[in-house]
Design goal:
alpha+beta, Alpha-Beta Plaits, 4-stranded antiparallel sheet, flat, about 110 residues
């Protein structure tokens, strides 16, 4: 099933603590997004010195059964939330992630 993925940066005028509190406080607003089953918020970190981090946060929105992920973006709550991220200079990027393919690791022999 497809899901929406939103990536954004912390605004420079807020401390990391302030930005964290604001982001987590906004999650309640997203409960009103029509057709949303659940969402997952993840803070992002750099994986290695060779892989610089461009984003500070990732939000995955999983639509309810029978609801298109794109339909969630029609919600007024969604549009206002995304607009707030833009106004705060958080540079949100919204992606549609289709059904994933699974790659299994090798069993240790």
């Amino acid at each position: 099933m497809s899901r929406l993925v939103v990536l954004w940066t912390r605004p420079h005028h807020l401390s990391a603590t302030e930005a964290d509190a604001w982001v987590r406080g906004q999650l309640d607003r997203l409960r009103a997004v029509e057709g949303l089953q659940h969402a997952r918020l993840s803070p992002l970190r750099t994986a290695s010195l060779n892989d610089p981090r461009e984003w500070d946060w990732m939000l995955e929105l999983h639509p309810a059964e029978g609801t298109s992920a794109i339909a969630c973006t029609d919600s007024q709550v969604w549009r206002e939330w995304l607009g707030d991220l833009r106004l705060l200079g958080m540079r949100p990027t919204v992606l549609l992630a289709d059904t994933p393919s699974v790659v299994e690791g090798q069993d240790p022999a």
